[in-house]
Structure formats: structure tokens, C-alpha cells
Amino acid sequence: MKLVINGEEVKSKGGLSVSELLVEQEVKMPEMVSVEINGRILRRPEFDTTVLNEGDKVEFLYFMGGGSGAE
Amino acid sequence: MKPDTVAIHGGYACGDPSGATAVPIHQTVSYAYKTARELADVFEGRAPGYIYTRLANPTTTALELRLTLLENGIGGIAASSGMAAIASVVMALLKAGDEMIAAGGIFGGTVSLFENTLGRFGVKTHFVDVAETGRFAKAINDKTKLIFVETIGNPRMDVPDLPAVSKIARRANIPFIVDSTATTPFIVRPADLGADIVIHSTSKFINGHGTAIGGCMIDTGGYNWAKGAFVDIKQLSERVGRMAFLYHLKNVIYRDLGGCPAPMNSFLMLQGLETLPGRMEKHCANAAKLAAFLHEHKKVSWINYPALPESRFYDRVKKLYGGKGGGLLTLGLGDKAKAFRFIDSLKLAKNLANLGDAKTLVIHPASTIFAEFDEDARRQMGVSDDMVRVSVGLEDIEDIVKDFEQAIEKTF
């Protein structure tokens, strides 16, 4: 299945929850990432219950920063 | 996962290389990178990573994640104290000339921050009686930038109608900020009742043992920052969407004020969270029993506990908090001298400035946490000279009641 993650088309095995996608895509420091799907930000408990669909646009966002470039 | 499970496992899955079951305490100031490029990438936001514990720390991250899960938020930040959390949130949103509306009868430290400290910087706060929800709407003008309430006001025990106040804030397109220290996620999840930002003093019930000072702020995702009245957050939302407030908070105010928690304290809060569900049940049960005893006692002038049927907020507690009134109550003993005598006569309950401890605590608010306010101001805040505030602990209720009974006998 194809997804668009941070603007790039990527392959995913399909039927995964957001928590599983973070593992599949080897997202660094998943505890610090926020996830938006098709423009909707997920509340944290939804990571386990939200399943990805073909063509979903996924954005991974970090807000830990603190460096000057973060804003 | 259900909330009781999240309280124990949320935010940390024994992922430390050692397999440690307790969240490790990362007692470090900074984090080393092998190359200059790697650190530069983290600084510039191109790669995730820790930089400096004032900004983020792995132990604190686990706490932030657990609290965010429990509060049904989109993200959260822990702070060095509840006051640091409140100051960070309101200073991230307000500038000189702005106004806010706050519930009357809330914590004296918060009133002092809003009126005195922020007043000096040109921010005006209007305090309204939460009993009449319509007063929030009446107090709004074109300078109003936020509404702030406590789930159960300390010490007036006022309970705002959260969904109704949320609607008023939504209509005015301003964020609704809820301090849930007195309730915790195990009495109410304010996100589900329309709160946009949830704040806790984690030093209280979340820590539960009076061993560490801390606070936190959770964005519930309820407020649309892209359409809000906050210019810099609005601009930021074009890049990071709904995370804009947390980005702004973390990268500007929180970073600049330096109100970060000590890693050891974050660990103590995580420990506290593990047992919070059971403790909160017992705090509420013990407080309800003590309130019933004091209500029947002929020598007690008055008693204020929001889950007592006689309370003017009983219906709201029943509807919004499932009938749970929390672990705090206040009682009146006629005058200040009697209040002092009563406190001096208690053997089990400790006389100190804190709440939410496993131990039963008492304090005379008028001469301590509200001493900086004059008598008129105290009266408006619902703090009378004969008032004693009680944080009902987890001891056997029979021992608590016995202690109060003998202290009342000695008072009169």
C-alpha cells in the first residue's frame, strides 16, 4: 500500500495502526513525534486505534526542538 | 489501553537497553553528538534529538507522554511547578494590553500571578463567579484573549460548568484553559468537556506523596490556532498545523523562562501516576465520609465539599465528575482563634501548605497562602478567617474522623 509521508510517496505493508507505522518506518524517537493524517492531528490515544488507508497523507512532526531553527 | 493501564505503562515500554522496568532517571544537563553536523541538524530541527535538559529530557519526555495519553491530548510539556506551567501558558498567549477572564475563588498564587505580576506587564484579569456561567460571556470584550478556570476552585470549591464555558470561549474564538489539579484525569478529562489546554500542578495528587514540585500543560487539540487571534502562533500553524501552540511554547516562552522540571522530579511524578487511579478513588471516598461527619457535627459552623448534596455545585459534580468531589474540603469553626485552636489540636493531620498528599493535611488559608491579600479581597475570594482547608489523605477514615472529633472537642 502507498502512503504519502512528509510529502514523499512511501510503501507500507498496509492495515497498520499509527503506532505500528512508526515502527515500520523506523521513525526516530517515536515518543516525541506528533502525527497528522490528511490534515487532522491525532490525539495521542488515537495512535493505537487509527488504521492507515491507501493514499493517506501522513505528516510526522517533532516539537522537542529548542534550537533557533525550530521557529 | 484503558486509563488505569496507561497510568502504569503509558509513555515507556521498558525500551531502555538495560530493560529497566522503572523509567530511568536521565540526570544529565546535555547530550553529546559524534559530529558537528549531527548537533547542527538537531538544533535546526532537521533531525530529532535531545539538546539540553532545559528544553527536553528523556525521563521528562516519558512523563509528558503519559500525561498526554491520560488527558487525551495532542502533546504536552512538563514544567518545574504548577505555577511555572500556568505562567508559561498565559505568557505564551498574552501581551501588554490584552485581557483575560479567570474564575473567582481560585488558588491565591494564581490570582497573584494574574493580578500583580502580569498586571505589572500590562495584562488585565477579570475574575467572575463561576456559579453564573453567563458572567463569562458578559466579561468578554475585544481585548479578551483567554478564559482560565480550575475544575474545583481551591479553596472556594466552586465548580465551573466546563462544557458551557467552553462554548462561550469557542464563540469568542479564544482558548479555554483548565487547571485540573484538584481532579486529575481520574475524576474528569477536561479535553472531553471542551478544554483547549489542561494544566496540572503535578506536585499534588499526581505526585501523591509530597516529594517533588512539578507541573504540566497539555494541548488537547481543541483550539484551531490557524484561525486564532495570536499572530505568531497563527503564522507558525502554516508550517506545523495544530501543533503550533506547543511549538511556540517549547521554542519561545518555555525555553526562555527556564521552568523545566528536574529529571528526578519527573521520575517521582511517573511513580505517582502509577498508583493515581486507586489513590484518587480513596481520596474521594475518604473526603466524602469526612464531609458527611463534619456536616452533621453541631459545633462546625459550615462545611464546603462540592459532592455534598447541600453544595450549590452538587448537580455539576454529579453530571460532570460522576459525583466525585475530590480530596479537598473546607470547614468553618466560628472565628480565627477557634480555627487556630482546632489546627493546633490535631494529632494525625499535618499543618502545612500543600494538598494531594497521602497524608491528611490542613491549613488556615487566611493567615498563610492568602495572607498577602487584605480582608476585603479575601472575602471576595471566599477565604474567611474561620476557614480551615483540609486535604483528606489515604489513612483509615476512622482514624481521620477520630482525629477531627477530638480536635473539635478541644477547640470549644
Task: Pick out its properties.
heterodimer, A: 71 residues, mainly beta, Ubiquitin-like (UB roll), five-stranded mixed sheet, disordered C terminus, B: 412 residues, alpha/beta, Aspartate Aminotransferase, domain 2, Aspartate Aminotransferase, domain 1, 2 domains, 14 helices, 13% strand
Q: How would you portray this structure in words?
A:
- The complex is a heterodimer of chains A (71) and B (412).
- Chain A is mainly beta.
- Chain A is built from 1 helix and 5 strands.
- Chain A has a single domain, classed as Beta-grasp domain (Ubiquitin-like (UB roll), Roll).
- Chain B has 412 residues and is α/β, with parallel strands linked by helices.
- In chain B, the strands form 2 sheets. Chain B has a 7-stranded mixed beta sheet with strand order 1-7-6-5-4-2-3, with helices on both faces. Chain B has a 5-stranded mixed beta sheet with strand order 8-9-12-11-10.
- Chain B has 2 domains: 262 residues, Aspartate Aminotransferase, domain 2 (3-Layer(aba) Sandwich), CATH 3.40.640; 134 residues, Aspartate Aminotransferase, domain 1.
- Chains A and B meet through strand 3 and strand 5 of A and helix 3 and helix 9 of B.
* CATH classification, class level of chain A: Alpha Beta
Return the structural class of chain A: mainly beta
Strand order of the largest sheet of chain B: 1-7-6-5-4-2-3
If you compute it from the alpha carbons, what radius of gyration of chain B comes out, rounded to the nearest whole angstrom? 22 Å
